[in-house]
Amino acid sequence: MTQADRSAERRSQGSGQRVLVVEDDPTVAQVVTGYLQRSGFTPVHASDGAMGLELARQIAPDLVVLDVMLPGLNGIQVLRELRGSSQVPIIMLTSLGEEEHRLRGLEFGADDYLTKPFSPRELVLRVQSVLRRTHAAPAARPDGVLRAGDLQVDRSARVVTKAGRELSLPVKEFELLVFLIQNAGRVVRRDELMREVWSHDFGDASTVTVHVRRLREKIEDNPSRPVLLKTVWGVGYRFDLPGSGSAAH
């Protein structure tokens, strides 16, 4: 049984979605797991990076809350290991002044982040938001396929292919691509993307910038000279459908 099958089986049994919390500070870990449990989740705690990786392999969590500053393997190393074999949603926890770690986390595929100190209720809301988007029932998602040149996005299967080759897109990159194609030809502001893709009314614009850069690396033939996902300086981004006869449908 695959990791996705095990996660789907747990959800169908109503046992609560498992959230792996990798955090070495016992106080923070206790507060976070307590709030998650009271919100109906099944939290599992790992106190260091090596334990986090082992538990991720054993329990196939629905989402990972991952601290950056961990003993032994740090959060960035754990993130890279996880992304080598899984697209499980990951929310990073960083401290004030750790902008470099935050950006590296986004570059390596983190879906979101929170800066310490943070509100446990906000963390729970972000976990709910990411999981709601990730595990929405197929019947609730719009049917059909989006096409843009040699890109094909199957929203029901959550599969993206380029010239027939499947691309590996984490949750937020997938959702960002879908939103941009659905709004092709229109300039989309960064704050709109934060609101519509990340469900935040405010946030660090670097989150959007990093995800756009990662997405370009996968969908553009030449990321340094994009023809699909273009920057409109001082405003935001515009997704251009190639060819006058192309359309998203």
UniProtKB/TrEMBL annotation:
SUPFAM superfamilies: CheY-like (SSF52172). PROSITE patterns: OMPR_PHOB, RESPONSE_REGULATORY. Transmembrane segments: none annotated. Residues 143-241 form the OmpR/PhoB-type domain. Keywords: DNA-binding, Phosphoprotein, Transcription, Transcription regulation, Two-component regulatory system. Pfam families: Response_reg, Trans_reg_C. Residues 143-241 bind DNA. The modification 4-aspartylphosphate is found at residue 67. Residues 18-131 form the Response regulatory domain. GO terms for molecular function: phosphorelay response regulator activity; transcription cis-regulatory region binding. CDD domains: REC_OmpR, trans_reg_C. GO terms for biological process: regulation of DNA-templated transcription. GO terms for cellular component: cytosol; protein-DNA complex. SMART domains: REC (SM00448), Trans_reg_C (SM00862). PANTHER family: DNA-BINDING DUAL TRANSCRIPTIONAL REGULATOR OMPR, REGULATOR OF RPOS. This is Response regulator transcription factor. It comes from Saccharopolyspora hirsuta.
